[in-house]
C-alpha cells in the first residue's frame, strides 16, 4: 500500500472512530445486571486471595486492518488470560465475535453489553453494567469482592501532543491550529504550552472522565474496588516532564496533560508508572506499535517525527484489599519512528506475541492481588 492511500485510510479511520466513539448522551445511557455464573461450586470455599489480571486492549477496528487480525485478538486474550479486558475500538458485533472466538478456544468470558465503543469483558461474573459518554462500566464479582471496572476510549481529535512534533493534531475549526489538520506544520513545531493545554482541554476528554470519576467515588462509598483503563488519545503528565522535555520530539515542552492528572487527583494510581516510575528508561510507549501485518504508512501519522507516546493506561484506586504486583507491555517490542520500524531501546518489559498481532497499539497488562476475605 502506498503512502497516499495509507494516509487517506488513516483519516477515514479517524472519522470512523469519531462515529463509533461519539458522545451519545449527557449522562448514563443504560444500566442493568448482566448474566452471571458462580465461579466456585459444590460448596468449595474460595481462596483468601485472587490474582486479578487487567488488560487495556485497543483492537484496531476489530482486527480488520491485519490479515488474521480477528483471530489475533482472541489469541492474545487466550495467551495472556487476563481476568478483565478493557476494549477500545470495539462495538457489540466485535465483542460478540470475540466471545465466540474465545468460546471456541475453551474460554468463557462475560461482557458488559455496552451499545457502542468501548467495552469490558471479564472471566468473573458481571453483576451490573452502565454506559457513559466515551466510557462504560462493568461491576465484576471476584469471589464476592465487587470491583467497578471502567473502560474508556476518549476523543481522538485535538491530538495536540503532535504540535511540538511539527504536526497538526486534528483540532477542528474554528480553533487555533485547525488549519493544519493532521498534516505537517509548514513553520515547524508549536511549543506554546499554554496553547497546547487549552486545546487539550477543549477536547472534552477530561470532562467526560470526571463523570466516571464521580461515579467511581460513589462505587467506592459502597465498598467496591475501582479500576479505570482505556485508550485516552492523550499522554500522561508523568511522561512529559522536565526529564523528557528534550526527548521523543517534545522540543523542550513540559505539559501537564489534564486527564491523567485529574484521575490521579481523584486518588487513582497509574499502575504502569507505579511499577516503572522512570519515563526515560521505561517510557512504556503504547502507540504507535509496529505490526508486521500492516504497511508502515498505516502505522504512523507523523512520518517525519518521533510520535511515540503512552496513551493506553490501567489505573487503580488504592485499598487494603488490592495490591499491585506488576505491569507489563503486551505487543511487539518494535515501533515506528520517523517512518521506520525500530526496536524500542528502553528497559520496558514486553510480553512479545508469537501469534498474529492484531492492532497498531500495544496493550497494557497489570496484575493485582485481591483479598477476598
Secondary-structure-based class equals alpha+beta
Number of domains: 1
> Unreliable segments (pLDDT under 50, ≥5 consecutive)?
1-9, 15-31, 33-41
Give me the CATH fold name.
Deoxyribonuclease I, Chain A
| Secondary structure: number of strands | 16
Assign a percent range to the helix content.
Answer: 10-25%
In this structure, how is the largest beta sheet organized?
7 strands, mixed
CATH class (first level) name: Alpha Beta
Number of helices: 9
Mean pLDDT: 91
Q: Give the percentage of residues in beta strands.
A: 15-25%
Q: Write down the Rg.
A: 20 Å
CATH architecture: 4-Layer Sandwich
Series of secondary-structure elements, N-terminal to C-terminal = HEEHHEHEEEEEHHEHEHHEEEEEE
The strand order across the widest sheet is: 1-6-7-8-9-11-10
Q: Based on the structure, what is the oligomeric state of the protein chains?
A: single chain
CATH superfamily: Endonuclease/exonuclease/phosphatase
Report the span from N to C terminus: 56 Å
The coarse overall form would be globular
Organism: Streptomyces arboris
Keywords: Endonuclease, Exonuclease, Hydrolase, Nuclease
Protein name: Endonuclease/exonuclease/phosphatase family protein
InterPro entries: Endo/exonu/phosph_ase_sf, Endo/exonuclease/phosphatase
